[in-house]
Amino acid sequence: MHFEEFAEGKSYIHSLDPRIKIAGLVPFILVVALTSKLQVSLLAVIAGITLVLFSRINFIALLKRLYAVNIFILFLWLILPFTIPGRKFLALGALKASYEGIFYTLNITLKANAIILCTIALVGTTPIFRIAHALRCLKIPEKLVYLFFFSYRYITVLHEEYDSLNRAMKMRAFKPRTNLHTYKSYANLIGILLVRSYDRSQRIYQAMLCRGFKGKFPALSSFRTNKRDFAFLIFMLLFTIFLIMVETENFFRVL
Amino acid sequence: MIKIKGLTFGYTPEHLIFDNVDFQYTLNQRVGLIGANGSGKTTFFYLIMGLLRPFAGEIEIFGKVRRTEKDFEEVRKRIGFLFQNPDDQLFSPTVEEDIAFGPLNLGKTEKEARLIVDKTCKILGIEGYEQRVSYKLSGGEKRLVSLATVVAMEPRILLLDEPTTGLDQHFTEKVINYLNNNTSSYIIASQDMDFLKKTVNKIYQVGKGKIVENETV
After folding, report:
1. Which residues of chain A are modeled with pLDDT < 50?
2. Which of A10, A108, A146, B189 is the residue whose CA sits 20 to 30 A from B81?
C-alpha cells in the first residue's frame, strides 16, 4: 500500500515548509467547511485547482482519490434534495426535490472537493514524517502526533500481514461466499490480525525500551523558512480573509 | 560481566523454559547459542534485557544484581539487543532517524547523533541509506539497518537474535564482516551452524530447560 504517492516531487508547493502549509491550510479549511454561500465554495474549488496545478501532481492518481470521495457524496445527492423542505424543483411520484435541497447538496459537493483538493495539494505533497515533525513544532500535543504517526507507520505493516493471511487462505482454495464458513473464516482473519497487532505493538515497545526510550521522542530533522514560505502563508491568509468577507458580504459593501 | 545463577523461568509455571540455569559471560567473548525452535534462545535474551522477569534466580550484569526496571534501564544503555524481526525494531520514518533514536535517548546532541549515524552506516556498509524510508527497505537492508540502530548506541556487548535468518550470501557476508572486524563482545542466537562457526569461538546448547556448553565445536 502506498499512501505517499504525491509526496515525491520538486514543485514550488513541494518545497514549502510543512509548518507553513499546515498553518495556511487550517484556517482556510475552517472557513470553507463552515460557509453557507455557494460563491465561497466555488472560489475555494478554484483555489484548490490552482494549488493542484502548482503542485504538478499525478493527475490520474488525483482523479482516483476524488472519485472515492465523490462516490460518497453521490449518496447525499440521493437523499438530501428530497428531504430538505422548500420550493418544489422536481417531483418523482411521492418524492419532491426542493431548490433548497439541491442548493445545499451542491454546496456540500463543492466544499468537500475544494477541501480534498487543497489538502492533497498541500498535505499530500509532504512526506508523512515531515508532517509529524511540523505538527510537533506547531505545538500539537505529542501524544496525538505520535498516535497519528504510529497509526500510519503500522497500517502498512498490518496491511501486509492481512495480505499474506488472505493469500494463505486463497492458496487453500478459499473463495468468499455467502455462507457461515466464509463469515467464520473472515472472523478468524480479523481476530488473528488483532492478536498479531497487539503482539507487534508489545515488541515494538520493548525494542524502543532497549534503545533507551523514556517516553520522549527526539527529533532530528529541522525546518527552514524563507521568504517564499512567508509569501505563501500571507497569500493563503489573505485569501481566507477574502472568503470570510464574501461570506459576510462586507466585501461588496466596501466596494 | 553477565553472571546468571539459578535462573528459572517459564511462560506458564507448569512448563519451564529454564530450570535452574547457570551461565557466565565475560567481555571479549564471542559466544553462540544454538537450539531448536522454542528452546528459549529469545526468552534468554529477553531475561537479560529485563523485558521479562525470572521466577527465581539472580541476574548479575556489570557487577550488579539486576532486579528492577531501573536496574535494567542501565543495562540497556550498555547491552545492545537486535530483535529477530527488523519490523519490530524499525519504527522511525527514515533510516537516519531510526539510527539516531538510540544515541539521542542517551543524551547526545543532534550534531553528535548525525556523526554517529554517518559512522555507523560506513562501518556496516550502508552509506547512502540515511534518507531512505525504513519500511520500504528490502528484508536484507532492514536487517542491516536494525543492526545499525543497535550498534549506534556503542554497546559493550551485543545480543543478536537470529541475525542471518532470511539473509542472502551478500548480506550475511556483511554481518560476518562487521562481527569479525569491528566488535569482539557478543552473544548470537542462531540455527545456522556455518554462520556460527565463522563468528564465534564458544557455542552453548539451549534446550530442555538448560544452557550447556557444546564441547563438540
Report:
1. none
2. A146
Q: CB contact, 8 Å: A128 with chain B?
A: yes
- Which of B76, B91, B92 is nearest residue A210 as measured by Cβ atoms? B76
How far is A129 from A7, CA to CA, in rounded Å?
Answer: 11
| Displacement of CA A250 from its chain's centroid (Å) | 31
A-to-B residue pairs, Cβ atoms closer than 8 angstroms: 76
Q: What share of chain A is helix, strand, coil (3-state, %, to 5)?
A: 75, 5, 25
- Round to whole Å and give the CA distance between B88 and B91: 7
Which residues of B fall within a CB distance of 8 Å from A209? 51, 76
Report the chain B residue with the minimal C-alpha distance to residue A222: B110
DSSP string, B186-204: EEEE-S-HHHHHHH-SEEE
Verify whether the Cβ–Cβ distance B93 to A129 is below 8 Å. Answer: yes
- Partners of B8 in the beta sheet? B56
CA distance B126 to B144: 8
Contact call for A218 and B101, based on CB within 8 A: yes
β-sheet with B56-61: strand ranges across: B18-25, B2-9, B56-61, B64-65
How big is the CA angle at A119 (ends A118 and A123), to the nearest 5 degrees?
A: 125
At residue B151, what is the residue type? V
For the beta sheet containing B30-34, the strands, ordered from the edge strand earlier in sequence to the opposite edge, are: B79-82, B157-161, B186-189, B30-34, B202-207, B210-213
Q: What is the largest CA-CA distance in chain A?
A: 72
Q: Report pLDDT digits (tens) over B56-105.
A: 999 999 999 999 989 998 999 899 999 998 888 887 778 988 898 888 88
CA A34 to CA A54: how far, in whole Å? Answer: 26
pLDDT at B200: 94
Q: For residues A7 and A123, give the distance between their C-alpha atoms in angstroms, rounded to a whole number.
A: 8
Q: Please, are residues B131 and B161 in contact by the beta-carbon 8 Å criterion?
A: no
ipTM over cut 0.85: no
Residue with the three cell numbers 459576510: A248
Nearest chain B alpha carbon to A202: B88
For residue B77, give the 3-state DSSP assignment.
helix
Count the neighbouring beta carbons within 10 Å of the beta carbon of residue B52: 16
Q: If 0-12 CB within 10 Å is exposed, 13-18 middle and 19+ buried, where does residue A69 land?
A: middle
Burial tier of A171 (Cβ tally within 10 Å: 0-12, 13-18, 19+): exposed
Neighbours of A161 (CB within 10 A): 17
Residue B194 sits at the chain A interface (C-beta within 8 Å): no
Alpha-carbon distance B103 to B1, whole Å? 23
Torsion of CA B181, B131, A208, B38, to 10 degrees: -60
